[in-house]
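Page 47, continued from p. 46.
Same chain as before, 803 aa.
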Amino acid sequence: MLERSSESWRESVRLLHILLLLIPISLLSQSVPKINSISHDWFERGTTTVVTLEGENLAQVNGFIFSGDGGLTATNAPPPVYSASLETSRGGIVPAENDEKKLRLSVTVAPEAPLGGRELRVATPSGVSEPVIVNVDFLRQINEAGPNNDTNHAQLVELPAAINGAIRDGARSDFFRFKAQKGRRLIFDVWAFRLGSPLDSSLALFDAAGKELARSEDVNGLDSLIDFKAPDDGEYFLEIRDSRYKGGKDYKYRIVAGELPYLDSVFPLGGRRGQPVEVELRGRNLDALGKMKLKIEPNAPLGQQEIRAHTTGGFSNPVLFDVGELAEFTEAEPNNTTTNANAVNPPLVINGRINGGKDVDQFKFKAEKNQTFIFEVEASRFGSPLDAVLYLVDSHGKVVQQNDDAVGADARIEQTFGEAGEYFIRIRDLLERGGEDFGYRLSIRPPKPDFTVNFFPDAPRVSRGSYAVVNVDVQRRAGYGGAVEARLENLPAGVTAEPLLVPADSAVSPQIIVHAGEEAALGHYPIKLEAKGVIGGQRVGREGRPQEDGRAVREAFLTVLDEPPFTLEPVTLSVRMEQDQSATVEVAARRHGGFAGDIQVTAEGFSSGKEPLGRNVELQPVTLKGADSRATLNLKAKLDSETGTRMVLFKGEAKVDGQTVTQYSRSIPLTIDPFPFTLSSSLPRLAVTALPPDRKSAAGEAEFSVKANRRGWFTDDINLAVEGVPEGITINATNIARGGGEAGFKITANDKAPAGKEVSLTVVGTANINGRNYQFRSSPIVVTINAPAAEAASASEKASAAK
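Result:
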């Protein structure tokens, strides 16, 4: 009895030990949270709103991250209160609010929070989600509540407000009713197309009797806009539908409605940093605000930003305004011909408008011989309706170059001038339209070498004792060919990443390998990538832009996890092989916490640009079974693979609790050397006639040649042989002599050759270099063997007689 108890105790301890060892594996197998949608993405200043996130792996969310301007916070919201409940007879059964696919949260917006967009992410112990966009508004937010598909069921709204909804059924409309006072000027501005919705809106206003008073469709792209002055006190109806009668949950809309200021345009569309600029405002309900003087601070961010008019009625819609570094010039009419063209001195930015349907703006400037200028229009990128066409004209009136639609509807020309002299740049609208809203910014500037850097993923994860990969993509502009150094900043304690040097003129997309030590601090941390290069003799820095699925996001986050179920280490420290040759690599897998599952091991890396390693190297994954700890991978360089050295690393994948766990090794160099020579045939197809030995004819012969492409230092003899030669065909033997580049072959066919058939021949070249034999096989040469003409005619006669 005592012995049995002791044995039972030992078994319990053993099971407990196994369970404790399995805890880190279970924790790691938790998947990264994912957000698919958010129930509300617009929030009013000074309010708290409960919203629902839908996605995956949301049950363990313990943090909310807002990227962008501050003023927003979020907490887990209490579960909803139901009017009905269940009661059990013996207890132990309670409602389950812990939903992996849904999460309720309370979003609080400070009263002074800046207007505009933010990125929201959720965090769990196993990682950080991708972001969703949320927005801060000054208006009360009203969410469409159906059924509201006719005037009898129209949803009552109090204006001003922002109405958020979706046309879920294309055959139906959404109706809203509101009260208005006589003479009040109301704006109804639809935002759908401009926010990426597929909705092509049709917006209409009706009086209480159902009479249509106004309708709008395509004003801002596919978005509708109604400017309505109430004819009487009373109740009115607003209808929105898809003009093509399509619908779905993604057909979202937002209607900004009320007696609100509205900006049609501002002019100019931008100004110079550190300089004042007076802007002209055009719009509705602007309280006579026609002009405003702005001061652009010396440290104002370069590029586009949103500006709004603020009146007693509130804030207007946002319009884009540019902050630049170049001198500014405003066009002066008349300047429609070369004789009255405005004189400008590049580099500069010209602010202008195409005022009428036939208006053309012309500017004259001087260029030196071999000088290069870029002429670029920015108009549609600011919301201007202008579809610009650019013409570069010389002093004799000859069009040197013209362009339309280089970036969207905006034009761009780059020209290196072969002769010094006076030139003209001309701009007009493609459809010969014009008006006060047809503004543009036309920059004339020399190419400025520069670079930008993107990196991904935006939320990498690394386990203690293991590695993670951050891919770096260097984009070079205007001829910049210098080296770029990139390094990750703000890494937590215990996490390291070696700086990365992208060589001059390199197009490779390299990787930064992140390593977490055994004692690395757990949790998630915001990280940045800093890149440095030399432009014009000056060392410059550029902040890397994180990307998620090819889309730029505001921030990147690194999550450090506890010990994984396994780690990988390369046993082979470097690999070298030639094109069309193979090499083996050994990788060791170290298992942790009793993990005995299968691990699939493969190699990863990039070739030039963003081409994956598989573009140049053939490899098959290897699966390590439960007791295996070493994988041997066979890598074969393709014959046309890029030569040189690139870094590769090894990836292991395993299933734990139904979830995929991925781990990386550190990287090793892989070098591919060129094959000494290749062969190519002058003709892919030939034809010969099978003739008896006593008949001599040119038809029984054919010729082709084989060229050798020697690589690197190789100059030795290449011995040639032809494979696949059938009976009745003879081919002269020949080789390519030392230093030679070509050999000729002559084919002769006799009556034993297989007439009426095609045969495939392959030229095989061999060479012995430093005691090693190299062999290259050419592409197949197809030879058609024809029967003699007389025999062919006889066969034809027999066939006719048989009929």
